[in-house]
Amino acid sequence: MITVRREKWIDCIDQIMPLCQMVHDLVEKDIYGIPLDFDATLYQQSEDFDEFHCLVMRENGRPIGFHWMVMYQLARFKGKKQAGTDAIFVHPEHRQHSMKLIEFSEKYAKDHGCTTWAIATLDPEYRGLLWERKGFKKAETIFIKVMT
C-alpha cells in the first residue's frame, strides 16, 4: 500500500537518509564539494514556524520517496503565499508512483494557502516535460556558485 503524509523531519530523517544521499550524489556533491550535514535545530525551528514541510511517501511502511517543501509569504505579491521545493525524490525502482507524491504535494500546498509552487530540477534528472504536463511553466534558470 502506498501512502503519502507529512511527517516530522526528526522522526523520519534516519529512514529517508538513503534517499537524501541519492539526491545529493546526483549533482550537489560534485557542485558543492561538501557532504550532507543537516542542521536538526534549523529543521525543527522551521517546522515549528510551519514553514518547512516534510512529506514522505511509503510503500507498506518503507520510505520510497520524499518532498521537502518550504512555504512563505510573497512580499512582492501581497496576500500571496508560495510553496518552494527544496528537494523531491522518488527511488528509481518506485518511479511509477511519482504522480502520487506530486498530486499529494499540490493538494497539500493548496490546502496550506499557497497560490504558486516553485520547483527547480537537477540537470541530470531534468523532468521539464513532466512538470509542464502538471501545469508548470518554465520561468527561470537557476545558477549556483560555491563561494569559498
Q: Briefly note the structural class of the backbone.
A: alpha+beta
Read across the widest sheet, the strand sequence of neighbours is 1-2-3-4-5
Domain tally: 1
What's the CATH first level? Alpha Beta
* Ends apart, CA distance between termini: 46 Å
Elements, N to C (H/E): EHHEEEHEH
Main β-sheet: number of strands, strand sense, barrel status?
5 strands, mixed
Task: Tell me which oligomeric state these chains represent.
Answer: single chain
Q: Could you say which overall geometry the principal axes of the C-alpha atoms support?
A: globular
Average residue-wise pLDDT: 93
Which range best describes the helical content: under 10%, 10-25%, 25-40%, 40-55%, 55-70% or over 70%? 25-40%
Q: Architecture in CATH?
A: 3-Layer(aba) Sandwich
Pfam families: Acetyltransf_1 (PF00583)
Domain N-acetyltransferase: 2-148
Organism: Acinetobacter baumannii
GO molecular function: acyltransferase activity, transferring groups other than amino-acyl groups
Overview of the structural elements:
The chain is α+β, with helices and mostly antiparallel strands and 148 residues long. The chain has a single domain (2-133), classed as 3-Layer(aba) Sandwich (Aminopeptidase), CATH 3.40.630.30. It contains four helices and five strands. It has helices at 9-32, 40-48, 98-111, 128-133, and strands at 2-7, 52-59, 62-73, 81-90, 116-118. The chain has a five-stranded mixed beta sheet with strand order 1-2-3-4-5, sandwiched between helices. Helix 3 links the parallel strand 4 (81-90) and strand 5 (116-118). The radius of gyration is 15 Å and the shape is globular. The mean pLDDT is 93. Pfam families: Acetyltransf_1 (PF00583). GO terms for molecular function: acyltransferase activity, transferring groups other than amino-acyl groups. This is GNAT family N-acetyltransferase.
